[in-house]
UniProtKB/TrEMBL annotation:
Biochemical pathway: Cofactor biosynthesis; coenzyme A biosynthesis; CoA from (R)-pantothenate: step 2/5; Cofactor biosynthesis; coenzyme A biosynthesis; CoA from (R)-pantothenate: step 3/5
EC number of this enzyme: 4.1.1.36, 6.3.2.5
Region of interest (Phosphopantothenate--cysteine ligase), ranges: 15-225
GO MF entries: phosphopantothenate--cysteine ligase activity; phosphopantothenoylcysteine decarboxylase activity
Binding site for CTP: D104, K114, F149, K163, K167
Keyword Nucleus carried by entry: no
Cofactor detail note: Binds 1 FMN per subunit.
Keywords tagged on the record: Decarboxylase, Flavoprotein, FMN, Ligase, Lyase, Magnesium, Metal-binding, Multifunctional enzyme
Annotated coiled-coil segments of the chain: none
Record's protein name: Coenzyme A biosynthesis bifunctional protein CoaBC
Family according to the record: In the C-terminal section; belongs to the PPC synthetase family.
Magnesium is among the record's keywords: yes
Record's catalysed reaction(s): N-[(R)-4-phosphopantothenoyl]-L-cysteine + H(+) = (R)-4'-phosphopantetheine + CO2; (R)-4'-phosphopantothenate + L-cysteine + CTP = N-[(R)-4-phosphopantothenoyl]-L-cysteine + CMP + diphosphate + H(+)
Span of the entire protein shown here: 176 to 400 of 400
Length: 225
């Protein structure tokens, strides 16, 4: 497609994208995080912008920068902050692509001062975070498209299908850590897309930009019925 034609694919559509990890504070100097680089989510946001969408990018801590100047970036740190930013922007969005690596657990209490080391070990009590995607799935209105990711090491397809159903998604992007060239800090990714009818599309290993294109085209197809 030419650049001009491409710009029309998602013209005037607001699309919410999440990217990066979340950091869950333990005390003023420490946190629980994960290895997400934000690369996949930023590539998706750029691709949606080049298809003409009004992109809102909610991102956890990352060194990534967007190429497209039109993207509205909202920086958050914790899963709770990401939830709040998503909830306030989902209603007016045509679609949401949830590629962030959201913490499943957060410290039950944040120490107000730096925890001093003592003899013996240290136990940190954790509580569950809200599943943002599941919560958006419960709020989803007719015509809205919701896309999730699944990162799996085993029983990949079965686990992905169960997430797709539990979270009321339109499709899920399965990443297997067993695929060479796929994963956190890499510039390439290998995905399988599974949709609501459990139709499965296996893609080749490719650059994260090319993977983003495949994911965004699927969103375009769903929006256009
Ligand atoms: N997700 C979310 N909020 C959370 C945890 C996950 O929105 N608190 C989203 C992720 O952004 C991703 C999808 O849910 O799009 C699946 O994340 P994943 O970690 O693969 O699955 P979980 O449902 O968290 O299950 P588990 O980690 O036990 O495999
Ligand atoms: Ca998880």
């Amino acid at each position: 497609t030419s650049t001009i034609k491409k710009k029309l694919l998602l013209a005037n559509q607001q699309i919410l994208v999440t990217a990066g990890p979340t950091y869950e504070a333990i005390d003023p100097v420490r946190f629980i995080g994960n290895h997400s680089s934000g690369k996949m989510g930023f590539a998706i946001a750029d691709e949606l912008a080049s298809m003409g969408a009004n992109v809102i990018l909610v991102t956890g801590p990352t060194a990534q920068l967007s190429k497209a100047q039109t993207i509205k970036r909202i920086d958050v740190t914790s899963a709770a902050e990401m939830l709040a930013a998503c909830e306030s922007n989902f209603k007016n969005s045509k679609a949401c692509i949830m590629s962030a690596a959201v913490a499943d657990y957060t410290p039950a209490h944040v120490a107000p001062q730096k925890i001093k080391k003592q003899d013996g070990g240290l136990n940190i009590e954790l509580k569950k975070t809200t599943d943002i995607l599941k919560s958006l799935g419960e709020q989803k209105a007719e015509g809205q498209i919701l896309v999730g990711f699944a990162l799996e090491t085993n029983d990949e397809e079965q686990n992905a299908i169960s997430k797709l159903q539990k979270k009321n998604l339109d499709f899920i992007v399965l990443n297997s850590l067993n695929d060479a060239g796929a994963g956190f800090k890499k510039d390439t990714n290998k995905i399988t897309i599974i949709d609501r009818s459990q139709q499965k599309t296996v893609f080749e290993l490719k650059s994260k930009d090319a993977v983003a294109h495949d994911i965004c085209l699927k969103v375009v197809q769903l929006i256009n019925g």
